[in-house]
Amino acid sequence: MESIQHHAATSSDERDIRAARNQAMFRAVNDKIHEVNESFAVLTDTFSIACECANPRCVEIIEIAPSEYEAIRANPRRFAVLPGHEDKTLEHVVAEADGYVVAEKEGKAAETAAALAPPEGDDGG
Asked: pLDDT for 64-99, tens place per residue?
């Protein structure tokens, strides 16, 4: 019985880690388009970013003010996702805004997100 419980915990941890890696991948995509966003933000006052949800098939876009995105990025456990895209088994919503929510990872997913974050001061761009 203990073996089954250990396997279930390990499977859950692996799922949490995989989800955090997916979100980190979307964050890396957003880092790559950061330069283009900075150019257009002067004209539009917003960035266009990929939804940073854990679903690797999601290709939806979020419009967000640069200062709001930078505030989210200041905490490596937080991600900008579309409403309804948060995974309540790995994260909870800590803020709601017009067109997106801020989801904060918990447990193993939080540890993985923090470990995959770029070093402080390195925005990846």
From this structure: 988 899 999 899 999 999 999 999 999 999 999 999
Encoded tokens for 34: 């950061």
Domain that holds residue 89: 2-116
Whether pTM > 0.70 for this model: the answer is no
Tell me, yes or no, whether 121 lies in a domain: no
Q: Which residue has the tokens 């200062």?
A: 67
78 part of a folded domain: yes
Check if the beta carbon of residue 14 is closer than 8 Å to that of residue 41. no
